[in-house]
Amino acid sequence: VQLQASGGGLVQAGGFLRLSCAASGSIFSIATMGWYRQAPGKQRELVAALTTSGNRNYADSVKGRFTISGDNAKTAVDLQMNSLKPEDTAMYYCNIRVVTFNYWGQGTQVTVSS
């Protein structure tokens, strides 16, 4: 099973993007679905996560601006990003975690110009 991410691009500060991620097949026993990002020279960090019980966690830097949504049945997870800032520039990776394994998407680049 592979995760396919899409929706990245170049946007001006204050703009918005929506990232989407879908699995090529079924994934069972999902624990969390989420998005991570990695900027050049920095470690990969959690942006937002969604548990199967519906709990959402966000990095402090994106709270109030980003919204994660997911569909366990379709094994898809989206990230709506509003009020983008230059510091949001990074490669974004979707992630689906099951008990013993992490599935990762290939990454989609988000670039926010000032």
- Per DSSP E runs of 2 or more residues, the count of β-strands stands at 11
Low-confidence stretches: none
Order of helices and strands: EEEEEEEEEEE
Number of helices: 0
Which geometry do the CA atoms define?
Answer: globular
The proportion of residues in beta strands is over 45%
Structure characterization notes:
By secondary structure, the chain is mostly beta strands. Helices cover 0% and strands 56% of the residues. Strands 2, 4, 5, 6, 9, 10 and 11 form a seven-stranded mixed beta sheet that branches. Strands 1-3-8-7 form a four-stranded antiparallel beta sheet, with no helix packed on it. The protein starts with a strand and ends with a strand. The mean pLDDT is 95.
What is the gist of this entry?
With 114 residues, the chain is an all-beta fold. It has no helices and eleven strands.
List keywords for this structure.
globular; 114 residues; 0% helix; mainly beta; four-stranded antiparallel beta sheet
